[in-house]
Amino acid sequence: MSSLSRDLSAAVDSIDAGRLPAKVSVENGPHRVELDLVAGGPVGVSFDRLDFAAEGVNDKTPAELRGRADRVAGRLSYLMEPLAVVEHDPQGAGVVIRSQPPSQRGDVHAYYEANLRDDGHLTLGRVAFDETDRERHPVPCQLTREALDRLVDDLADVIR
Questions:
Q1: Cβ atoms within 10 A of the Cβ of 60, count?
Q2: Long-range contact pairs involving 153-157 (C-beta distance under 8 Å, separation at least 24)
Q3: pTM over 0.90
Q4: Of the candidates 13, 88, 93, 160, which lies 20 to 30 Å from 72 by C-alpha distance?
């Protein structure tokens, strides 16, 4: 039996290091995941962005979307920082989930940021905010292969 995480792992393994960065995309049943892969090896991966989509999701009310976002934040407890819903437009179709609190090294605060839409599409990335220039900069997410597998399978389980 195939799973989204196994399919993604096989796709990452098939990328020659000389072809990086590369976009890796897999589908399994109603789920699709796309990874902007920067580096990959037997132990871990580095990626700029992960896009996850689930067909057939349609949160009809802001409360349904908020509930799904809370479940995503609660489920992904193994990332570097805990996640929490930080922005929710009661009239809108999207929610922002972010590390709370962010990691801090010197003047730089780094955090995961995910945007979840009511149609089951989630985008995950990592951002660094530098106090010296007061600017947000995207930075690669670095996960072990095991954490990436778990992340993809957890998203497939929660966003369905």
A1: 8
A2: 153/3, 153/4, 153/5, 154/75, 154/76, 155/31, 155/33, 155/52, 155/72, 155/122, 156/3, 156/4, 156/28, 156/31, 156/52, 156/54, 157/75
A3: yes
A4: 13
All residues at 6 or more sequence positions from 115 whose CB lies less than 8 Å from its CB, including other chains: 94, 95, 96, 97, 122, 123
Helix (H, G, I), strand (E, B) or coil at 101: coil
- Count Cβ atoms within 10 A of the Cβ of residue 117 and give its class: 0-12 exposed, 13-18 middle, 19 or more buried: middle
End-to-end CA distance of the chain: 19
Reply yes or no on whether the pLDDT at 1 is more than 60: no
Cα dist from 99 to 58, 102, 133, whole Å: 25, 5, 21
- In the chain, DSSP assigns E strands to 22-28, 31-40, 44-54, 83-88, 94-99, 103-105, 108-117, 121-130, 135-139, 141-144
Between 38 and 59, residue with greater pLDDT: 38
d(CA 59, CA 63): 8
The residues facing 123 across adjacent strands are 51, 115
